[in-house]
Design brief:
The structure is a homodimer. By secondary structure, chain A is of the alpha+beta class. Chain A folds into 2 domains: about 100 residues, Orthogonal Bundle (Hypothetical Oxidoreductase Yiak, Chain: A, domain 1); about 200 residues, Ribosomal Protein S8, Chain: A, domain 1. In chain A, the strands form 3 sheets. Chain A has a 7-stranded mixed β-sheet. In chain A, strands 1-11 form a two-stranded antiparallel sheet. Chain A has a two-stranded antiparallel ribbon with strand order 8-9. In chain A, helix 1 crosses helix 2 and helix 2 packs across helix 4. The first copy, chain A, starts with 8 loop residues before the first strand and ends in a 6-residue tail after the last helix.
């Protein structure tokens, strides 16, 4: 008997992983300020247990940079501005850098006018949306972040990949409890979940993916074989048109509103796929925003009511006495507490990947 | 053989139904201006084919008014205001009246500052969200409308009704095509679909409702029998935590932000259920907003790209050659064209209901 799918996990401290990642971004040409921000976005994903969006993607960013699709010395340019809005041309920057900057612009406008929004165009993938939206929290603001992404999801009734997993993120400050953090792909399942099933040779539940012909499947490789991800809702009867509509909302806010690409034209994250020609916009797009809570009523009244909201949901009747009701953002917060202390577990394939990155830049990676 | 479920449909013109509905609101004490607005919101639902939210609900509003839970001569009061935000106390008005007014405030602020948002508290059910959001379209603005509602939906892992079907609505202007109108309950299925299944004695698909104990069911009466609606996503494996999270976002924006009720405390629409005591807020809440497209880039560039967006989705590969890809809002627009000309079909139970309303107020209802 042999363990076909055996693999090992290595634990690495937050500090050493962050230090290494910062060095890589510096080697790519980023300023030290940009390298620190970019690394902290990836690390936030690893700390919060969103392994698919953390350092596992570092080599992907390197390859895009090698293809000159990422500019590590961008000149950000404000293309349009009002009291509350900014259209920011990111000059092909890392989204890891342009999105936090766009969020800061939004927060500054919100301080004065009540709310602020930034449409970021000509950008690249921005990591986890929650990192950007959560920048609003220390200011007692509601944070919003969305991005469009490489097309993998088919609209209801279609077999064509037209939309990304297009996440929506909304965060709300509370008082004694942790903030409510909603950060979700608008597809039924994210690509990362498929990859886990592929690695372990398992099938996937019905409703995640359809075959190339639009048929039902439980094959974890169906996406690789020309299929497409299904929108949240999974089937016509269970409301997949709603997931399709939500993903469309994200695509329009992120792509159409400011002048980035949208739909099939969103440039792929993987460097081996070339962007389409005749693009209608520039790069991919993000939409971030901040809304001051006390633009509506005193912040301490709001956060006190948020506490009551959270408490009432925690105390909702359970279907299974052993299974607590989860508040959005709570599992990620708990994971962050653990991993900050105990270190971040990396799959050996990620470790190998990072070692290759280290070698490329003459760096040391100590796993 | 007898046709157990036979019923008849009566067709009534838009004009005569609108006239009658306006008269009813006047008889309830509304000013003529308020009566016209309230009737036009209900009619818009009937025209667009959202029969569950049109005049079928008129007697429900009457009963709430009889219970003194709706105030037809409200004094709207601005509780808080910034450049871009308003918290509007609706004084227990019909949401059919307070929401359009709140949207107008948001549009006026957006004209000057780029965007505007109104939190409406102490209100009642507002009909279809799209009516309010679509007021932004003639101004080349993106419109947003949400409301919380009587609790019917259980969070993932819970068996308790904690959230309403809490719709999210986003509308985007286009140029040669009709606007994209996303108006969706954040539950897997709306209550109206259950009622249709109940009337025809049919089962419902798995994933719409769970039993009182949290079990799967296809029984259209399961909700009536103590069960709860499931969030969009339907099951843990297919992402019901995302539908739960979206519904929470709506509840927080509509309830917590301005000081309305939220969660289990949202007052029920049906007059035979009393609101809970010790309410944390006032009435139910809406959140509406407008964002000027040209606060980001020239509106005609945006609408031209919207046209391309729409066209590319219309032309996406079909799973079935006979089944076109649907653009959000398209079926409702098409229905509105037909019903505006040919009249509105009313189920006989609705006709009987309206005849009783007519009798109560000494009016004439000609079906």
């Amino acid at each position: 008997m042999r363990a076909i799918f055996a693999f090992s996990i290595m634990i690495i401290t937050k500090e050493s992983l962050e230090h290494f990642t910062t060095q890589v971004f510096e080697k790519m040409g980023c300023s030290i300020e940009h390298a620190i921000v970019a690394a902290s976005v990836l690390l936030k994903a690893d700390l919060r247990g969103i392994d698919s969006h953390g350092v596992a993607r570092l080599s992907g960013y390197v390859r895009l940079w090698e293809k000159k699709r990422i500019n590590t010395i961008p000149q950000f340019k404000i293309e349009h501005e009002t009291f509350t809005t900014t259209t920011l041309n990111a000059d092909r920057a890392l989204g890891l850098v342009s999105a936090p900057y766009g969020m800061e612009l939004a927060i500054e406008k919100a301080k004065i006018y009540g709310c602020g929004f930034t449409s970021i165009i000509n950008s690249n993938h921005f990591g986890i949306a929650a990192y950007h939206a959560m920048k609003a929290l220390p200011h007692d603001m509601i944070g919003i972040a969305m991005t469009n992404a490489s097309p993998l999801v088919a609209p209801t009734h279609s077999t064509q990949r037209m939309l990304g997993t297009n996440p929506m993120c909304y965060v709300f400050p509370a008082k004694k409890f942790q903030p409510v953090v909603v950060d979700m792909a608008t597809s039924a399942a994210a690509n990362g979940k498929l990859e886990i099933a592929q690695r372990s040779g398992k099938t996937i539940p019905k409703g995640w993916v359809q075959t190339k012909e639009g048929g039902e499947t439980v094959d974890a490789n169906a996406l690789k074989n020309g299929g497409s991800l299904l929108p949240l809702g999974s089937s016509v009867t269970n409301g997949s048109h709603k997931g399709y509509a939500l993903s469309s909302v994200v695509d329009i806010f992120c792509g159409v509103l400011g002048g980035a690409n949208y739909g099939i034209w969103v440039p792929p994250f993987v460097a081996f796929l070339e962007p389409l020609t005749n693009l209608p916009g520039q790069g991919l797009g993000h939409f971030v925003g901040a809304i001051r809570v006390d633009a509506f009523r005193p912040a301490n009244e709001f956060t006190a009511n948020m506490d009551q909201w959270i408490e009432s949901f925690k105390n909702a009747e359970r279907g299974n006495p052993e299974q607590p009701i989860i508040i959005p953002g709570e599992p990620e917060y708990n994971e962050e507490q653990i991993r900050s202390k105990e270190g971040i577990p990396l799959h050996e394939s990620v470790v190998l990947d990072l070692m290759q990155v280290a070698e490329k830049f003459g760096l040391h990676f100590n796993a």
